[in-house]
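G., the chain you wanted modeled:
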Amino acid sequence: MLKQNSEPVFIEGLWQDFVQKEQLTPAQEQQFRQYTDMLLEWNEKTNITRITALADVLEYHYRDALHLDRFIDISTIKTICDIGTGGGIPGIPLKIKYPHLRVLLIEVNTKKIAFLREVIESLGLENIEIIDLDWRTFLRSIHEPIDLFVARASLSVSELVRALTSGTSYHRSTMIYWASMRWFPLEQEKKYIQRDEAYEIGDKMRRYIFLRSE
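Predicted structure as tokens:
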């Protein structure tokens, strides 16, 4: 019989706490478990993420992505675009919890693209697409309707708001930027800030910066 302080019990406790907080179905829980296994396995041979401890993956990757639903009604969103998604955060966690979403993942790193393709196939995710274009080429080339852009640890705000300028296909879209408490907008960025919402995740304070055109 396992002791209460044994590693398997501790790990299972982390999972159950995550499942309860995010109100996941058994199928969603299984997808997150499989995603985590793949993330950590791939990370041993290529740089997918700097966060590798299970507790931190659950808290600072998954819950940090999903906490967005405390500030926006995701059930009203049809299409999201994850800019510089890397290992799929926040796009894939949002897709798992909200399967109705159409998700576009922008990523140019070939190894990360290979990882994302394997995750999408293994998890059986549908209506999700990888776009291997840099940001400026994407803005010139893709004109699919997008309700919400999400950007976490990717480009600067001054680069991101190119999508919201007059004349682009996305000047009426909303963009959410994950920011630290130390982030401060440049003067030319301030006019795009619609909301600035602080939140606590784990032992860290962070912010969701909601950006829209004037």
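The first strand starts at residue 79 and ends at 83.

Shout if anything looks off.
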